[in-house]
Amino acid sequence: MKFNIRIWIVAAVLLASFPSCKKYLDVVPDNVATVDYAFRNRNEAENYLFTCYATMQKSIFYAWSDPAFTTGGELLHPFPVENNRDMGFRMLRSGNNVLSVELDFWSGNNAGVNLYQAIRRCNIFLENVDKPVDLTANERARWTAEAKFLKAYYHYWLVRMYGPVAVIRKNLPVNASIDEVRVKREHVDTVFNYVVQLLDEAAAGLPRIITSEASELGRVTRSAALSVKAEALAWQASPLFNGNPDYLNFSSKENKPLFSTTADPHKWVLAAEACKQAIEEAESVGRKLYPFVPPANLTGLSDSTIHLLAFQGAVTHLFNDEVIWGANPVNADWQYICIPKMAVESQTNDVIWGSLSAPLAIAEMFYTNNGVPINEDKTWDYGNRYVPRASDEAHRYYIRNGYQTAGLNMNREVRFYASLGFDGSNWFGNGTLDDDNQQYIQGKMKQISGAAMIVKTNSTGYWPKKLVPYQSEFLARSLPVPFAVPRIRLAALYLLYAEALNETGNRTEALTWINKVRERAQLKTVEEAWSMYSNNPGKFNSKEGLRQIIHQERRIELAFESQSGWDLRRWKEMKDYLAKPMQGWSVYEETVAGYYQPRTIIMPVYNTREYLWPISDADLTINPNLVQTPLW
């Protein structure tokens, strides 16, 4: 028993931050169960497995802790907010710093969580899963695979943030030397290769489907492992990590390079193969693009609303057939910051903030109803997009008929209306399921949805409507419908496959997979849309042009899903995106003419060094074997 306790303590050495390397060998944590007790039977072992899941489900899958959600530039939030929940949003205004790293997932500070502790728990599980005598062989194989998946995912999260990181293949032995405790960063390809190796091992032992939905939703499947593998290989192949000249001199203390100096195009071949494998597995177990089938209580819906709910439902319909992997369902209490007040009875509900806003640039990112960018559509009045005009009968299911709104909000694709709420826009749901009498937003100052106190003000005039299920009600009382934002859904995998195919020179097949996603969005194929409506009709015929199309398609399809923030980083496009002021409408104005004037909300702070997180100065002092991320 004493030996097991010592293993637990020494394993923690790697991850704890103490003032000296000698001191933490003498620390005995209070109230720590022994490893023998934790694995004395099947029930206790399963509980321990759930602790391995806990870091992901309760921390890194929580929107406020996700750097892609809060620092991706898709959303803004007024500050301050309690409990550091606006940490990532503050980073857009001030950047990061090495004295107190924000969203620190290396050592677990400032709204981050220590992922090395999570990895340690996975290792402890893998080292002891053979102990419970009442665990069946099939259960042991599956649980081992789940722990390997989680261990891989925590390393994957770290490498995306920090680049070269310490790989923890197993916990330290009791007689580990001081130098062994002082871990080192490893070559970025070594990290990715280890992640892929673990995911391959995990996939072999994971179930293909979840059969006990009541008790196992959120647990991983073979499709999840293969999909994360495809993602990881796409990251390894992308410009941030594949021959990035910014990290040419990124080396260890022993002067060993931590980045490759030249790009390797074969990495995209591996990513394409992995995407294909993941798609085939997902489709073979019934994954498909989500179609909205109206339930019995919804009759007489217009095609416009059905198409809108098909796109929204892919995200908010809990564990639907498009979701390959998602977090456990939660009450999604942050829905209250996504929805504006639209009804008289909601005025007394102080829970409704409606303060999470999308910048004007995000509204401009979506296509026209012809399926091409607004600045390319020959038939769309780009020059007068900020000029207000009355909505008409053609928009009656998306915009209040006759309401004065910006031209920017008219003649847009269905994903625009499904993703964003804005002044004059209809909002299907929120207690009103009458397609012909929807609630609508009145967003100007002193109107029912307009600016209030600073923390309850939508700064830009655009609300992330996509993140509120139509069944949720925020009226006199709040009745949010639980859902979990998918971490991987089939549409995302289709577009990732298209990206990898294009990068390997297979543009024809890449177009097939993009068009599958566009079809659900009621858009013409890329070939038809660009040929008929774009002022750059041959754009899709070159690798570079199709790359731009794919990148924009992913940003539109996956907006507000904690995806675009990661994509912009791996593409090395975040710096360009955040080089411009983040703007919105003049929400403190009462008149139509005054409201529809763009105003700058913030000027983001972002430069090349922000692509990778720094390690805190304190951690560098504790462990002299570590090197700082370049440019910090």
Radius of gyration: 25 Å
Strand order of the largest sheet: 1-10
If you consult CATH, what is the topology of the largest domain?
Serine Threonine Protein Phosphatase 5, Tetratricopeptide repeat
CATH C-level class of the largest domain: Mainly Alpha
Determine the number of helices (DSSP H or I, runs of at least 4 residues): 23
Q: Tell me about the biggest sheet?
A: 2 strands, antiparallel
- CATH architecture of the largest domain, please? Alpha Horseshoe
Q: Report the β-strand fraction as a percent range.
A: 5-15%
Give start-end ranges of low-pLDDT stretches: 1-32
Average of the residue pLDDT scores: 91
Shape: globular
Q: Indicate how many domains the architecture comprises.
A: 2
Distance between the termini: 45 Å
Which structural class is indicated by helix and strand composition?
A: mainly alpha
InterPro entries: SusD-like_N, SusD_RagB_dom, TPR-like_helical_dom_sf
Subcellular location: Cell outer membrane
Family: Belongs to the SusD family.
Domain RagB/SusD: 322-632
Account of the protein in words:
The chain has 23 helices and 12 strands. The protein has 2 domains: 2-287 and 614-622, Serine Threonine Protein Phosphatase 5, Tetratricopeptide repeat (Alpha Horseshoe); 303-321 and 331-483, no CATH class. The model is unreliable at 1-32 (pLDDT under 50). The longest helix is centred in the first third of the chain and has 26 residues, at 137-162. The protein has a two-stranded antiparallel ribbon. The chain has a two-stranded antiparallel sheet with strand order 2-3. It has helices at residues 2-13, 35-38, 42-60, 67-70, 87-94, 115-128, 137-162, 178-181, 188-205, 213-216, 222-237, 266-284, 303-316, 360-365, 414-419, 490-503, 507-520, 526-533, 543-557, 564-570, 574-577, 592-595, 617-622, and strands spanning 323-326, 388-390, 404-406, 421-422, 426-427, 439-440, 462-463, 473-474, 478-479, 486-489, 582-584, 599-602. Helix content is 39%, strand content 5%. Strand 8 and strand 9 (478-479) form a beta hairpin. It is globular, with a radius of gyration of 25 Å. It has 632 residues and is mostly helical. Pfam families: SusD-like_3, SusD_RagB. InterPro entries: SusD-like_N, SusD_RagB_dom, TPR-like_helical_dom_sf. Residues 322-632 form the RagB/SusD domain. Belongs to the SusD family.
